[in-house]
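Good morning C.,

I know you're traveling, so I'll keep this short. The sequence:
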Amino acid sequence: MADDSHGKADGADHKHHGEAAGSDDGDDEGDNGHGSHDGHDDHGGMHEGHEQMFRRRFFVSAVLSIPVLLYSETLQEWFGFSVPAFPGSEWINPVFAVVVFAYGGVPFLRMAVPELKDRAPGMMTLISMAISVAFVYSLATVVFPEQSAFFWELVTLIDIMLLGHWVEMRSVRRASSAVDELAKLMPDTAERITDDGETEEVPVSELAEGDLVLVRPGASVPADGIVEEGDSAVEESMITGESKPVSKEPGDEVIGGTINGDGSLRVRVGATGEETTLAGIMRLVEEAQQSKSQTQVLADRAAGWLFYVAVGAAVVTAIAWTLVVSFNATVIERVVTVLVIACPHALGLAIPLVVAINTSLAAQNGMLVRDRIAMEEARNLDAIIFDKTGTLTEGEHGVVDMATVDGVDAEDALALAAAVESDSEHMIARAIREAADERGLTPPDASGFEAIKGRGVRATVEGDEVYVGGPNLLTQLDSAVPDHLQRFADEAGQNAQTVVYLVREGELVAAFAMADVIREESFRVVDALHDLGIEVAMLTGDSQDVATAVADELGIDTVFAEVLPEDKDEKVQELQDQGKLVGMVGDGVNDAPALTRADVGIAIGSGTDVAVQSADVILVQNNPLDVVRLVKLSTASYRKMQENIVWAAGYNVFALPLAAGVLAPIGVLLSPAVGALLMSMSTVIVAINAQLLRRVDLSVLETAAGASSTAAHAVD
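The tokens, ready to paste straight into the viewer:
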């Protein structure tokens, strides 16, 4: 509560394929375990096992398909080549096709079983129908040789399906590596210091809260905790994204999984296991990978609809062609072609690949997405509200000036203010105490400390009731402001400084001017968001004059000043009532109501507070530039989703009528071979297009604005 004294204190698609693939046959159990040899978790190992399985089956099936292609009369006629015939060569096509079907095709039949059991036919069911009909029809032509077989179309279709699944599992595994890499950061053992000062090596799982551990130079920190002894620099980039090692000394927090520098540290364990920052971040990344966006749900539904469309189209095609040419091999060929064309593999791949890559890119750039819909909505934001202190400004204050009423010594006033602030950890309190220390002042003893949310603090000093706080405190106490202190406050406001008041026994006795530096990044953030057509607003509990000075320097469009924490969500609602989609950027704790009210809640600088439940997106670094990167990634990801759906669905819209034979009267018939080729092209295009998301430019251009400007601290 002390920190409040001044106002601030998708994946389901992959499961569908992966779980089924994992049970395709017993001889692949070894493959499914392949991915776990290097210490990956089951999630990553599962995907790597499936990737290896599909990869091996693709290459084996492709090699076995070569004789079928070479001895296909159709291909020989198309490309004008011939191969030697020999006794028994007529059996090459059926024999090799049967082997390819049994090795590369049967797994798809097994993957269709769960769909049928769940009465939710989809991609696997359609693939199974297509290859089964093609297989049975081709075998029938061996018995009734007057009809032409299309064994080569069958093996090609199976090869393409295996290739598509290999590409998908490879992409999923790469995206899942964000979690796997995090898991690798935590060491297996730790050096625990015993009561007699000796060290013992124990598994990290045996550490308990309160244990003291030794972290040697270059070793990984085994758990979250507080440094009790030692000085070092800790590499935290893998957790927080901080590019430079962070200096650590007694009293500083360290995060499990980070790498110690050149000094030794003795750390008192504060959290272990599932309670650590790293475990929380991993949960957030996994939740994001498994959650579905609106577009993904639409694609899933479309794939389900496509099954019924395909079956209906196949039935209509069979009836129509039977009426026209009577039931014969041509009718079967048309039905098979329709089923091949309707295969929703590309559609099923369209969104999951983008979601997986998006989540991976977000994690790599310090963005932990808790709500996929929020990530999707970020591209549509009309306005973004920033909480000022510590977000747009550095949040590091100093006392730059002070004024007192007649008869009160400035140093006595500062010592009195430091006494009142002695129990507060708020940044303003620290600044006042540091100012007193620099002057060699000894604050008197204080008792009865109380934080007054959004207004200030109160304590009893030498029998007097003393308050320290901002303008809202004076309003509550109804304290009159002497003219010369008012002039002091006005001048401080013009200089973008915050004024904190000292009130003793109801009488205003002193005022302190505080300064906070505007972040260099803040100028770039505002300019970049304006370039994206997004309105920028600022929320602060500081006075209107101070807030306006900061806003004018940054070029902010809308300012909400003198706002109490409990009223912040009303300002979000105010913009929403104007029909705007609003994002809120805050610290995720005191700003919780506003973050919840916003269409997209963004907790900034809360990477070590993974329990924040109010934000949709958590930005690990305390860097406002990540807000721009979030919007850019959201826009780029949604564009890729749309492009992929167009490629996947557009292919079906174009090819299904041709497969059914609507242009047969003018001599245009789509063969199963061409259908398989079109389907494979659609799948490959979707996969490649999704991978291009990795090239999205998330950088934010430099601006000419300087970084030396100062802004007021928000005494909210």
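Safe travels,
E.
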